[in-house]
Design goal:
It is built from 11 helices and 7 strands. Helix 3 crosses helix 5 and helix 9 packs parallel to helix 10. The strands form 2 sheets. It has a 5-stranded mixed sheet with strand order 2-4-5-7-6, with helices on one face. Helices cover 63% and strands 12% of the residues.
Length: 351
């Protein structure tokens, strides 16, 4: 069915648009006193409303002559023939209506006067039909464009969701790789510490599985996950790993992506504390900013040290997740300053 006819408001608006057409046709047939305005109104106002529905037959002709698949000759032939037939049917109905007015309402001579106007009305009928054809093709083009945009948006959303799932799926293997290497190193030198690390790793994975499936978690919950990771690393590094934390209570309820902090803390330990003979301090600071929440992770940094394999994987992962989730409303800044490597994460604080 025509989309205009499927909605009552659209149908009424479409019929109302034919009132000016009826007034124009009334002026044409009443020119020079050929027909009184009252008689023209009796015939053309109801007949224009009838023709409004007849012209909608052009909507179904689009299947016989698709705009992009038909040559110009076929288009003109099809719609010109349909316009002539539709105008002829319309004129026939209008003449019957004029005859009924003449015979039942005793509007003497109205049928004869209307008959004299048939040629000009037939031409107008053909032109009106072709005008509706052009409107319908425009409507079809707009609908096709909207469907294409909607499909493109749907595909973009699906691709974005798939990318987010892939990015989040990368976190566990990357983290497990480093953790298992640490356990492997402790098995021979300190079996008790290796067992403790396995228990802590199980606790961390349990928590990450519980919260990692959520779209957003509070910053407090995210910090607790990061603390679980730090407990694991303390078993490995002992006194070499020190942590300084300051979390503004005002931002603890801010909703953040799950496991967004763990790669930052892991990066600080792997590339800052681990290479240093005496270890180092990892500083974690979170506070409310003007636009949301700001999280800063700092670790000691030696310019001369060579980066470990996989350096930057966690930071790249976080950047891509932020870009997908927040576009330009979030950012990750990296500053390898004098002796300290600083990662600053800023994102909206949603509740």
């Amino acid at each position: 069915m025509h989309p205009i006819l499927t909605n009552r408001s659209r149908t009424l608006l479409y019929l109302a648009s034919w009132i000016p057409v009826a007034l124009l046709l009334m002026g044409i047939v009443a020119r020079g006193g050929a027909m009184p305005w009252s008689e023209a109104a009796l015939i053309l106002i109801p007949m224009c409303l009838v023709y409004a529905f007849i012209c909608q037959a052009s909507w179904y002709l689009r299947r016989a002559a698709p705009l992009r698949e038909s040559d110009i000759v076929r288009l003109l032939t099809t719609h010109a023939s349909a316009a002539a037939v539709s105008a002829g049917v319309w004129i026939g109905i209008a003449w019957v209506w004029a005859y009924l007015l003449d015979s039942t309402l005793y509007v003497n001579g109205i049928a004869e006067r209307f008959t004299q106007q048939i040629p000009i009305l037939f031409v107008c009928g053909v032109l009106l039909f072709l005008l509706v054809v052009a409107f319908n093709y425009l409507l079809i083009t707009l609908e096709a464009s909207q469907r294409a945009e909607s499909k493109a948006l749907e595909l973009h959303v699906l691709a974005r969701e798939a990318e987010l799932r892939a990015l989040r799926a990368q976190i566990d293997p990357h983290f497990l790789f480093n953790s298992l290497n640490s356990i492997n190193a402790l098995i021979m030198s300190d079996p008790a510490a290796a067992r403790k690390m396995c228990v802590l790793l199980a606790d961390f994975l349990r928590g990450s599985l519980k919260l990692g499936g959520e779209q957003r978690i509070t910053l407090l919950e995210e910090m607790r996950l990061a603390e679980c990771y730090l407990d694991i690393e303390r078993v490995r590094f002992g006194a070499r790993l020190q942590v300084e934390r300051h979390i503004d209570p005002e931002c603890e309820t801010c909703l953040v992506p799950p496991l967004i902090m763990q790669p930052l803390v892991e990066n600080a330990i792997t590339h800052g504390v681990a290479p240093a003979l005496n270890g180092g301090v990892v500083r974690v600071h979170a506070e409310r900013s003007r636009t949301g929440v700001k999280i800063v992770v700092e670790n000691p940094f030696e310019v001369e040290s060579k980066p470990n394999n996989g350096a930057g994987v966690g930071l790249k992962n976080v950047k891509m997740r932020l870009a997908n989730l927040y576009k330009d409303d979030a950012r990750l800044d990296v500053d390898p300053g004098d002796g300290w490597f600083r990662v600053e994460l800023q994102m909206p604080c949603n509740h």
